[in-house]
Amino acid sequence: MKSLLSAILGACMTFLPQVSVSADIQSALTHPDRDNSNMQRDQYRHPAQTLEFFGISPDMSVIEIWPGRGWYTEVLAPWIKQGGGEFTAAAFPKDTGPEWRQNIQTRYDQWIAGDPDRFDQVNVTVFSGPDNWKLGEDNSADAVLTFRNVHNWVKGGFADTVFDAMFAVLKPGGVLGLTDHRAKPGTDLETMNSSGYLTEELVIELAQKAGFVFEEKSEINSNPKDTTNHPAGVWTLPPMLRLGDKDREKYLEIGESDRMTLRFRKPGE
Asked: How many folded domains does the chain comprise?
């Protein structure tokens, strides 16, 4: 019987470098304490393949920006701990900002503290305006990762600030890996802001403006069923299902959003 990781890799291998993924990722994905609802979303988020495409290894110093409820943290943190690397969650402040965001961060912190076997080495820092736009010492991280957050930065008007911060913290030669909801080419900014979908062109432009070199894109997280045209934007689709029971089965059949998966590099010395 195929392992979970083998089945996932078999579906998407054409998009991946032909190298093996550490067995430690498999153990993180299938850990008995991993949230079952998170595991059900592997079919849309393809964590093993995505991390491989980004070139992440568990001995790296890795920063995850805005981990939210910890979907990727649950995979990254135990894997990096076992590999001897360093994992930092650049998170929301839990005492300022919208109440919903404070609640997310409070739950995240409690979750991390409640499972020291997996998360005792997670370094949680604050990354948010107006005074905390620094991710760490300059030239100190091997990789920065962020998942479905760039649309928030664009809508908030601080995307340039975040990309500059990501560039600054990375070592020369360091990698920036990101995913986000993908708009159709030519989509205007107003529609992007209201729908939550961004064009690849805009995201690449933002990264290059900060100094990054665009290396490669992957279709690992693409979803051809997603038209990107929904009544409540991307939040119409799972996991949000903002319309409730209205057309619920239709949106469950579509699945999670069509996503870009992009890899950038900070130029080496």
From this structure: 1
